[in-house]
């Protein structure tokens, strides 16, 4: 009998982890859509892209080192240590005025942010019953994404039409203290699984032998690149090119993100009960790709029009995301922290790719038509989505 099959579902722990995940995501997202504007106060657009790329590189390095750290210290101690480091880094973001210090701290906090999420994934994976992975992942992902709906509105209210972006870092810092308490309070007796130790070469071989994982990783890189590009450049585009106010952008972002908490939980249940993941995943990428291409057409500063257009793109993204999460966690064991870390590496890799795509693309086309490029890139994900083997 497998480790997962032998475990009993623990609903109260699942809900606790969901609450922790909500607070964790809230602390990361409150400043996220204004990060690029904050960096632009002391760096040009190209340098901002390089800072993001450096943060992505640190995150990748962190994911490569994380399995050994977690195996030695345990997931609980690792999570506590990472949150304490993040508190220190946000203290510098709030208080420092040195551009070099701010750049270095921003780069480091990007990596720590990703690694805290990895420890939460391990907590959740250990307590998830094998027959309810889609439902649990749907609940968890929808809860995390609910914070994405709330956070941009909080962020824009804190900025309040000014350039005082540090207020968002103060709020993010405040979120870290309840996060630290909840992890400390709920998991001191957490029993780590017997993590499988793999060298980088063994890990690469292990993943490459599973063609479905390879396809899933490829599709996830495309999805995460879409997210990263949108987070960095769409607020700047809406503000500087279209002419929307930050209050208007906040409304657009809130409406845009509504599909995540609304459809991911029911889609996760459907993946458990009735349908395979690949069909819903493919439909999601198709909607995401086509609707993103349409973002290149309007030029009017209408909050309503932009809210509707961005909303449709996220219907597709939300469907694709939850199907990939469900599929992956149905095929990975809690002991495979290295494989889990590798799957999460797709996020910082995408954070590296998105600015690179923008820097290269702007040599040939305007920002407006970069939406076409990102839309076509999204449609490429139809290939892995349609050819992956269903778990059902």
What's the layout of helices and strands?
Blueprint: H1 3-6, H2 11-29, H3 32-39, H4 45-73, H5 75-95, H6 99-127, H7 133-159, H8 166-186, H9 200-208, H10 211-242, H11 246-257, H12 259-273, H13 277-294, H14 303-331, H15 337-361, H16 370-380, H17 382-387
Helix pairs in contact: 2-6, 2-7, 2-8, 3-10, 4-5, 4-6, 4-15, 5-6, 5-8, 6-15, 7-11, 7-12, 7-14, 10-14, 10-15, 10-16, 11-14, 12-14, 13-14, 13-16
The poorly predicted ranges are 1-9
Mean pLDDT figure: 85
Structural class: mainly alpha
Q: What composes the largest sheet?
A: none
CATH class equals Mainly Alpha
Strand-and-helix sequence, N→C?
HHHHHHHHHHHHHHHHH
- The number of distinct structural domains comes to 1
* CATH topology category name: Growth Hormone, Chain: A
What is the tally of helical segments? 17
User: Percent of residues in helical segments?
Assistant: over 70%
What is the number of strand segments?
0
The gyration radius over C-alpha positions equals 20 Å
Our estimate of the beta-strand percent is under 5%
Question: Any idea what the CATH superfamily is called?
Answer: MFS general substrate transporter like domains
CATH architecture, by name, is: Up-down Bundle
